[in-house]
Amino acid sequence: MQIEPLFGPDMEWRQLRYLIAVIDAQSITRACDVLHVVPSAVSHQLKLLEQELQSTLLVRGALGVQPTATGRLLYGQAQAILRQVADARACVQVEESQVAGSVSVAIAGSIAQVLAVPLLAACRERWPAVILSIHEGLSGHLVEGVHSGRFDMGVLYASEATAKLETRPVVREPFFFGCARALAPEADGKPMSLQDLARHPLLLPSLPNATRGALDRAFAALDTGYQVAGEVNSTATQIGAVRAGLGASVLPWISLRMLRPRRSTVIRPLDVEHLYRDVLTATKPQAVRSRASAMVLAQLEHLLRDIYAPLASHR
């Protein structure tokens, strides 16, 4: 049986660019404003692409133009392909000794607050010809992007989903209880049990999430659960709400530096052996890595070692 390739000989790079732009804009008209192309040309090329693949890629609905399941699959693959094309062009446009190209890095939210700016600064200083693209989000949402090749690498938390990636462990990071000092002024620094934690309404990210997963595992052996006062999926907003006294939270070690000024907050270690998350770097298995991508990954891991060095020295 002959297997037909996904990308036929008649497919063009511009068709992939048009598809990405329309899905991002959720509108052919808005995509044309970005592409500087007339709508009829975009529609024609997308129709040719659908004919080439013998599949519908886009549908119009109440929310605008949306991708079909096949369209979503091609969207991720197209981003990876066009980035590789850009890397190839960059390589022939600069001297062989110069690191150049585009590198896409996915960083889980709380770590991104500390890592993203130093990584951007280091890459700008060392490799000015490298275009770094940083994507921040929930770890679970970023895994598929790394696996599909949309992101060259990621800083994620270990889960069942990351088992399909090529990973390198960074650190086992504990969680802490944090709240405004007005909510618990006498207990700063005192270890907290799960029974004590269960009495506090918590501001937490929504599932699926590494913090929630760790809490679920820890509370599984108890007769009681923890209280969710609200779900906040932005680290900066979560920390701001805690500082404002709107509730307590369970925070990873890396987020504690954001609880400033320290005199207005209470931080307590959680006296629970298995309440932690495993931080790791991840790449697509057997992916062909550009020189720029390899250099950025090495820099990324160097910065992570520096960031987590105080935690490692106390273990």
Molecular structure report:
The protein has 315 residues and is α/β, with parallel strands linked by helices. Helix content is 43%, strand content 22%. The strands form three sheets. Strands 3, 4, 5, 6, 9, 10 and 11 form a seven-stranded mixed sheet that branches. Helix 8 (210-219) links the parallel strand 7 (201-204) and strand 8 (227-231). Helix 1 crosses helix 2 and helix 1 crosses helix 4. Residues 1-10 have low confidence and may be disordered.
Distance between the termini: 58 Å
Q: How many strands in all? A: 11
Pattern of helices and strands? HHHEEHEHEHEEHEHEHEEEHH
The number of helical elements comes to: 11
Largest sheet: 7 strands, mixed
The shape, in one word, is: globular
Structural class of the helices, strands and pairings? Answer: alpha/beta
Helix content: 40-55%
> Runs with pLDDT <50, length 5+?
1-10
Task: Give the oligomeric state.
Answer: single chain
Taking all residues together, what is the mean pLDDT?
A: 86
Strand content: 15-25%
Radius of gyration computed on alpha carbons:
23 Å
Short key terms for the protein model shown above:
seven-stranded mixed sheet; alpha/beta; disordered N terminus; 315 residues; 43% helix; 11 strands
Task: Give the structure's gist in a few sentences.
With about 325 residues, this protein is of the alpha/beta class.
